[in-house]
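Protocol step 4 of 6: structure prediction from sequence.
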Amino acid sequence: MWRDNFSPAVFLTQIDSETHSLSKPRRLTFDQNPNFVEAWTPDSRAVLFSSNRSGTYKIFRQAIDQAVPEVLVEGHGIFEPRISPDGTHILYSTGYNPQDPAQPVSVMAVPLGGGPARVVLQMPFITTFSCMRSPSKLCFLATADLLFWFDPQDGKVQPFYSLQRPAVYNCMVSPDGSQLALVYLGSEHKITFVTLNDNRSREVELKELLSIGMDWTADGKSVFATGWTPNGIP
């Protein structure tokens, strides 16, 4: 039997606008449950994260000056809370079954201020999704071989990019929707950038990182990337 003590926590840090260096991080969550931070609220006063508590993942919101989070969404297999382009709803995925990846995954929407959830769309093989920022009204999702735009209001989808390799580990679109940042399975030490107006691509190799988590900066000019060094240091 394999055991580990992997229990991600949420930390906050400040970014120097000139040097882009990070200040010493401050821990926000102090429980022993795995906490996966996914998004900021539109006012940047709280973070959204998913956490496995009481045997199932839930979505929490925690203000940056508070010690205890509040539950926003409960259910089974809830992941990836995202903020809708207009900032009024939280989108999240649910229904992924590792024993049956072809089973449709649901993208749900719930008002940021609370209320009933509704189904936006259902599709098999969804690996990740994210949303543009206003004035855009679109979000995107990645499947095993295609990327789609979708409207979080009516759930209509439209393919816009065919993946060049069979599986994507992570995929994020820039805030203005002009570029993709892709990490393919088997190439976790590289980020592929794609300019969407002409599908031109280039690769950036991250020599010290073997496994990549990433997101775009607010200005869309660079990305944050995380991972592990060859000797296992995060």
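Step 5 (inspection) to follow. The radius of gyration is 18 Å.
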